[in-house]
Amino acid sequence: MTLAPYSAILFSSFGGPNGPDDVLPFMRNATRGRGVPDERLMEVSEHYMLFGGKSPINELNLALIDRIRAELDRRGIDVPVVFGNRNWEPYFADTVDQLIADGHHKVLALATSAYQSYSSCAQYCQDLEGAASGKDIRIDKIDPYWDAPEFSRANANSLIAAVRALRERVGGDAKVRVLFVTHSIPTAMNDHSSTGEPENRYDAQHLKVARAVADLAGEELGELLTWELTYCSRSGSPHVPWLEPDINDRMEEIKDEVDAVVAAPIGFISDHMEVLYDLDTEAAQTAKELGLPYERAATVDTDPVFVSLLVDRLVEWAEAERGERERNSICKYATGNCCLVRNPNQTNTGAHHAAPRP
Ligand SMILES: CC1=C(CCC(=O)O)c2cc3nc(cc4[nH]c(cc5[nH]c(cc1n2)c(C)c5CCC(=O)O)c(CCC(=O)O)c4C)C(CCC(=O)O)=C3C
Ligand SMILES: [Fe+2]
Fold first, then answer.
1. How far apart are CA 42 and CA 27, in angstroms?
2. Among the three residues 296, 312, 345, which one is the final residue of a domain in this structure?
3. Which ipTM score applies to this complex?
4. Ligand 1 atom nearest to CA at 117
5. 23, 44, 118, 305: which could join 154 in a potential S-S bond, CB 3.0 to 4.6 Å?
6. What gap in Å lies between CA 7 and CA 22, rounded to an integer?
7. Using a 6 Å cutoff on CB, does residue 61 contact ligand 1?
8. pTM for the complete prediction?
């Protein structure tokens, strides 16, 4: 099999600190020009310091890259998979220079976020475009993959295991509530996510995945799962509205209606700091204080169903590029009509992005 016309894959992610000395410079990178108050910056730095100043994200990404490489090998596709980040080493710019030095001029990127919004999709497109700009290289990015049945399947595998583990503790009759969780974003960013119609937005994408995951898991567990969508990791100024409810607030509200909760982080593909801190530390503590037995479902991480989906999407993108299949791209970034609000103070004109990618 082939990935032609692409000769390399760029695995692109957010980046995170590898030790205490990295924390502040990383935080400055992640918040530059973002209107994140210093107070929040210090607070999140503390979350990293609780874990030795080290985010799990880089090692998890390297492990996923290994599995992608193995799946490519299995299919007889011989292309390198290189790593690049938006906010920490290896930075996109350095990875791109290395790709060019190694003779690559058409590269296919994938991002470690599954959904469409400025932060999770357009910002990757923009930063990759910026890294390639003026250089002898073209970088295309595959679509976000939240809509893939395999993504729901992999998340359902995790939810099934979590519900079973919880029921071992609380019994078959306990009223269990599944709280799907994702990263909150400003409501203005949500309004302009994907193509902007309510049914396509970031929150709606998650509701579709949540429903599919709950249906698949419920079927296999033989129980009708009661679920809802909640958020974590709210940032920004307190005056700016972000998506709600926060998982902690919601647990407080439902504590008398339910006997136990499962947090299912469908918004994260692996155990990023948000999962370790916001869910495994903070939400777990809230549940404990409320007397609610709590179980956190695994992220899809290196589930073979998920790894195989990523490789399928890379192969299909290359096939479409060669004209061997239709391309029904859900990301409209190249036409200037996708996820374009960067923050609530910025209006969505799409004007700077109207030109197709080189
Ligand atoms: C939608 C979304 C994803 C999922 C998609 C994706 O994966 O990209 C995501 C991922 C991540 N976010 C991460 C870290 C941070 N995000 C921040 C800030 C923000 N995130 C936002 C949104 C998202 N973020 C937003 C709207 C802001 C406000 C500032 C802005 O408008 O940009 C800040 C600044 C402090 C703060 O404000 O909390 C930090 C340190 C890490 C690394 C974790 C690790 O180290 O394991 C990862 C994977
Ligand atoms: Fe973030």
1. 9
2. 296
3. 0.93
4. 1
5. 305
6. 32
7. no
8. 0.94
